[in-house]
Amino acid sequence: MRIWGITDTGLVRTENQDAYSTKAVGQYTVAVVCDGMGGTSGGQRASSIAVEVYQAEVEKQLRDGMNAAQISQASDYCIAMANDAIRAEAASRAGYERMGTTLVSAIARDELAVITNIGDSRAYFISRNGITRISKDHSVVENMIDNGDITPEEARHHPKRNLITRALGPEVQAHADTFPIEWKQGDFILLCSDGLVNTASDQEILFEVIHNGEIDDCLARLLDLSRQRGAPDNVTAILLMNI
Question: 2-241, which class in CATH?
Fold first, then answer.
């Protein structure tokens, strides 16, 4: 498996509240992207805690040869542990009461990957046949799309696009979704914060990953595209390639 990662503050924000990590755990590669919220310091702290705790707990929970249901259960447990850690930190420090974070992760091996998400950071499956969003945003605009009130394109520019309906931190119990997928040699999984998807379309992401030059440079090209369009938010992405 090959892995690339990138993060950038963008052109408007003064602090990068995104966090990401990749780690090899036995036969698995574990990747996670978080996008923090809740004040200047709180968001950064929440995303950092989520990445650290999720990765540490995954390392304890995973065993070689687990099936999709077992991996999903392990990921749900790690989400719960990360949520508890964020809530404990918020309760112990003044000014952190409202902090929280999104999380999207991939636990991947040869032919199987399990995606977990809470909030509006996303996971995509990319191959030469196209691009498919794996995760479903937990957001106000996603609910509006589901109800037929707006189109996906309108959602990218909607004034409520940053309002999420689920996150790690605000609730006693975090409710994440898991998506097991099959993937094969030459396929990609992209994890990213909304700072990327609000400035680059799915087709532009597909073009940069599959068609437009060296794969080693594709995340830098996507970041450049975001910055050309003002990069109003932090931009973070991890790309996994099955080899």
Answer: alpha beta
